[in-house]
Amino acid sequence: MATAVVRYTAAAITDRGRKRASNEDAFGYSVEHGIYVVCDGMGGAAAGEIASSLAVDEVLRLVTERRAAESGILPHIATEAVDAANEAIHSRAQRNLRLSGMGTTLVGFLAEERQAWILNIGDSRCYRLRGQRIQQCTQDHSLVEEQIRLGRMTRAEAARSPLRNVITRALGTQGSVTPDVIEIETDPGDIFLLCSDGLTRELSDEKIEALLNTPATLDEICTQLVQAANKAGGHDNITCLIIRVD
Ligand code: CA
Asked: Domain range for residue 238?
C-alpha cells in the first residue's frame, strides 16, 4: 500500500460556559510537532486553572523539545511528557497548601505521518469521525463509567448519579500516574475531536456527529459546538480541539 503523506490542520476553542465563574479548562497544540492536548483542571478555581495550564505547558514543552532534537521515540516521549506534567503539578501542590489536591484530566493526540497515539487520563474524551460516523476512542476514568462496564449501572442511571463527577484517574494528584495510550493509524479525511466533559455532558454523540459533519471551517465547527453546549445549559467549562487529516 502506498504511504501517502498526510497533513494535519487544527483549531480549538475554550469557553467558560454559562454557570461557572472561571474557566479551569486549558488546551494547547503545535501542528509542526504533532502534539495536541486538552486538560480539565480540578481542585478549586485557582488550583484547577493552574493544574490544567501546567499540564498543557509541560506536555507541549517536552514534546516540542524532544521532537526538535529528534531524540527518543514517540510513544515514549508522550509518556515521558505525562510524567513530567504529573511531577510539575504534584510538587507545586505539595509546596503550596492552597493548591493541595489539585489535578487535571488530560486527553492528548500525538501524530507522526499516519501513526498517531491518543493519551488519556480522566474523563475528557477523544472522538474520531470517519465516514461521517463518530466513534469514541477513549474510555472515561470515572466511577460511573466503571460501574457501567461492570454492568452495575445503566447509562441513564449514570447521567443522574450524584457521583458522576468522580474521576478515578487524574494527573498531578498522586506521585505517579499511568495514561491509557492507544495507537492508531490515521486516514485522510479523518477528523479527531478532543474535548472536556463540559461538551459531552451537554451534547449527545449524535449531536456532536452532526456538527462535525457540517461543511464549515474547523474554527466555525468549534464555535458551533460551544454554542450548542451553551444552548443546552453550559453548566461547565467547554473546550473543543479539532484535528483534521488531509
Ligand atoms: Ca469539566
From this structure: 8-245
> Distance, CA 102 to ligand 1 centroid (Å)?
14
CA distance 242 to 13: 9
What is the CA(215)–ligand 1 centre distance, in A?
28
C-alpha of residue 87 to centroid of ligand 1, in Å:
22
Tens of pLDDT along 184-195? 999 999 999 999
64, 203, 213 from 209: Cα distances, Å: 31, 10, 6
- CATH label of the domain that carries residue 187: 3.60.40.10
Is 17 within the bounds of a domain?
yes
Which residue in 80, 85, 112, 81 sits closest to 183, CA to CA? 112
Q: Is residue 1 part of a domain?
A: no
Centre of ligand 1 from the C-alpha of residue 195, in Å: 10
In a domain, 24, yes or no: yes
CB-based contacts of 7: which residues, under 8 Å, 6+ apart? 245, 246
Report CA(41)–ligand 1 centroid distance (Å).
7
Task: Write the single-letter amino acid at 225.
Answer: L
What pLDDT does residue 45 have?
73
Domain total of the chain:
1
Flag whether pLDDT at 3 surpasses 80: no
Mean pLDDT of the chain: 95
DSSP 51-79: HHHHHHHHHHHHHHHHHHTT-S-HHHHHH
- For residue 2, the model assigns a pLDDT of 52
Whether residue 135 is contained in a domain is answered as yes
Query: How far is the centre of ligand 1, averaged over its atoms, from the C-alpha of 72 (Å)?
Result: 33
Kindly report the pTM of this predicted structure.
0.96
